[in-house]
Amino acid sequence: MSQANKQGRYFPVVLAYVIMLVSIPIFWMLAVKFSGLPPVIMPPPSQVWSVLSSEWSSLWYHTTVTIYGALLGYGVANLFAIGLAILFVYSPWSEHFVTPWMVVIRNVPFVTVASILVVTLGDTLTTKIIVVVLVSFFPLLANLVKGLGSASPVLIDRMEVLNASRWQVFKRVLWPAAMPYYVAAHEIAFTGSIVGAIVAEWFFSRKGLGFLIVQSTTEYRADRLYAVTLIASVLAVGAYLLCRLWEHWLFRWKRR
Amino acid sequence: MTNTIPFTNTLSALEVTGVTKSFGTQLVLSDIDFCIGKSEFVSVIGPSGCGKTTLLRVLAGLEGVTLGKVEIEGLGIEKARSKQEIGVAFQRPALIPSLTALANVQTTLDLCSRESTLKPEQMLEDFGLFDFMDHYPHQLSGGMQQRVNIACAMVHAPSLLLLDEPFGALDEMTRATMCAWLANILKESKQTTVLVTHSIEEAVTLSDKIIVLSANPGRIAHVLDITLERPRKTWEDDAFIEEMKRVRAALKSVEAVAK
Q: A157–B60: do the CB atoms touch at under 8 Å?
């Protein structure tokens, strides 16, 4: 494909994002103007912007706390998901054994689990990590199992005839086959992990963006609430776009 | 002191003795016996459901036998597989989608501990794919994909090449071209080959010997020697058409019994 043609294809995608970014403050200002609500309840963009700049060091500290918790929890979720998916592929009976547990853990409302964890473990990093894992683990596991199972049987046969080891078959056939599914799971779960971390902080923590939300609400600081919302949105959208970029790079051979 | 010829001198490339295969209570292959000499090309044909593919999978070591034994150059099937003496190509190309044609062929060598005098680049060039080495499978036509697939199956110079309807998914004209191409390739490489096919024309064009299986359970009904000179002229040659008729008659007799 020619360079000009490639640029032509990406242009509308980029344009759509630019239009969206420009529209947000416009809609926001219109909403402020026409709702007639006072700035204490609905602050205009300029006021939120000044909060962002004047309280930046505090906001940034709490943001890093949230990012740290989210990344740590997400890492643990990935380790568990990959481990279990591999176990399921190589010993299918284990999937039958583990599935009922998964069904239960998945369907117990995680809000109650979070509360129980706070009571049991207190306001610790472990609690936050468990909440993040609960939120992000299942899409990862489901997609990995499906992806590993999607490997071409003829390709596996070819490897077996060559007496390839299990590890070689996994590395060359199963894992690459699972990649499109794994990447798709990240698009949901990575963003989910940030939301999970915020929710965990919202419940019990004394720091992090979730804590700021609670604090701002009780203090009627709508301007800071809006600032936190902006930061959280940028984080979540950033996480999603990062996944898309990764996907774009990973499957560059498909566009040849 | 006897003066019999040592057994090793008469060693065949593939020896199948009394092979029976059943899945549960269903008998799929019954008492299959045959022998293939080095550099021989043997086709297996038969009505659908006669166990052709199962036979090929047994020869590849992908299915165990219920009874009997398979030996490749005197080695049991597991031993032969562990020494990477077998190459296999199925109807659906077994290519890794994220690797180029060249890297796919190289993958076979990466997995092999055995020495091969064949080079992937040279092989793809001989296969008429010089300009397509850096292409990914999705960029290749069905015929090209299958050529890469066959290159993957024989680049490690296996003692036995197994082909399961490699051209089955291709259109008629590509099929004929590929068939002529394969005849040419194998003439050069002297590769011992077993081909499972539906096509009488393919079998007659390529084979030294054709095994006709009957169905339910799969049994050897006929073994036909094809002694036509190579390279074989296909449709212009009366002798070729006579052979086609002979194979067709054998296949018909088998199907008549089945009905």
A: yes
Domain of B62? 9-82+203-258
pLDDT tens for A35-67 read 989 988 999 999 999 999 999 999 999 999 999
Q: Domain A51-255, what fold?
A: MetI-like fold (1.10.3720)
pLDDT in tens, B110-144: 999 877 788 999 999 988 899 999 999 999 999 99
Tokens of A79: 């380790």
Euclidean distance between CA atoms A195 and A211, whole angstroms: 13
Contact A163 B94 (CB under 8 A): no
Contact B205, B183 (CB under 8 A): yes
Q: Is the residue at B57 inside a domain? A: yes
The residue to which tokens 């568990």 are assigned: A80
Q: What single letter denotes the amino acid at residue A30?
A: L
pLDDT in tens, B215-258: 889 999 999 999 888 888 777 788 999 999 999 999 998 887 66
- Residues of B contacting chain A (CB within 8 angstroms): 60-62, 81-84, 86-88, 90, 92-98, 107-108, 111-112, 135-136, 138-139, 152-153, 156
Rounded CA separation A168/B13 (Å):
29
Q: Between chains, do B139 and A164 touch, taking CB under 8 Å as contact?
A: no
Is position B207 within any domain?
yes
Decide the pairing of beta strands B26-36 and B209-214: unpaired
Give the domain CATH number at B239: 3.40.50.300
Residue B70 lies in a domain: yes
Task: Give a yes or no: residue B168 inside a domain.
Answer: no
Q: What is the pLDDT of residue B9?
A: 41
Task: State the Cα–Cα distance between residues A163 and B112, nearest whole angstrom.
Answer: 8
* Domain ranges (residues) in chain A: 1-36, 51-255
DSSP strand E in B158-231: where?
160-164, 193-196, 209-214, 219-225
- Structure tokens belonging to residue A206: 């004394």
Cβ–Cβ < 8 Å for B23, A122: no
State the pTM of this model. Answer: 0.85
Q: Indicate the pLDDT class of residue B8, thresholds 50, 70 and 90.
A: very low
